[in-house]
Amino acid sequence: MLIDCGESIDRSYKACGLSYDLIDCVFISHLHADHFGGFFMLMQGFWLEARRKDLPVYMPKSAIDPMRQMLQTAFLFDEELPFRLQFEPIELGEAVSIGRVQVSAFPTSHLDGMRAKYSKKYRVGFQAHCFLLESGARRVGHSADLGTPEDLEPLLAKPLDLLVCELAHFHPEKVFRYLQGREIKHVVWVHLGRPLRENLAKIRRLAARMLPAMKHTFAQDGQEISF
User: Smaller CB count within 10 Å for the chain: N or C?
Assistant: First the structure.
């Protein structure tokens, strides 16, 4: 499962040496460029590397038609692709089955400010989502982008084995405080901008002090996480 397609995903995926038929589906949480800007090159990479397996792509409903138009503008016509590209709208409250994994999407407030500022001028959707992945007793939460840490609440209704959580849109102390007392075994912190990277030792110490019962990983590109 691939969640979001930021720029350089095609180059990174090719460098990892994995099969181009390995990915069963793609989920795009929202339409900020850093979350879908690499999608077109990834599709071209799948085309050039002769992917064969059908590819369902789940994304906000309002973005499906514009995405198709962009693919056609880039000459990535359905007839040219050696696999079937299938767009599906993200439906809140309806789990999607991907093999043995159930994926549920929940709304976040990440784009609420932009909706308030621009919805009268720009007729686009302002949906943003986080995700819960469940397989048997295993539960994984993925924040994508949040408006506030409270957006994580639906993912935390039951204990999590792993939480992948962004740190780009609020001070780390705010989300650390929100997660205190939660049953989470391992947190992988992502979306770490330059200011956080430059103060990473301090942020690590703060996380360990405020959330001592949780394992913390501050992710690097290409890092594999076992849990």
Answer: C
Q: Kindly report the number of other CB atoms within 10 A of residue 119's CB atom.
A: 13
Structure tokens at 210: 């405020």
β strands within 12-167, DSSP E: 26-27, 55-59, 85-89, 96-98, 101-107, 129-135, 138-142, 162-166
Q: Is 2 helix (H, G, I), strand (E, B) or coil?
A: strand
Strands 138-142 and 129-135: antiparallel
SS3 200: helix
Query: What is the full DSSP assignment across 140-167?
Result: EEE--S-SSGGGGGGGGSS-BSEEEEE-
Q: In whole angstroms, what is the distance from residue 210 CA to residue 195 CA?
A: 20
Answer positive or negative: Cα dihedral of 54, 55, 56, 60: negative
Q: Provide the residue-wise pLDDT of the chain in tens; the chain has 227 residues.
A: 999 999 989 999 999 899 999 999 999 999 999 999 999 999 999 999 999 999 999 999 999 999 999 999 999 999 999 999 999 999 998 899 999 999 999 999 999 999 999 999 998 999 999 999 999 999 999 999 999 999 999 999 999 999 999 999 999 999 999 999 999 999 999 999 899 999 999 999 999 999 999 999 999 988 999 88
**3 state SS of 64:** helix
Beta strand 2-3 with 101-107: parallel, antiparallel or unpaired?
Answer: unpaired
* Long-range contacts, stretch 194-201, CB < 8 angstroms, 24+ apart: 196/167, 196/172
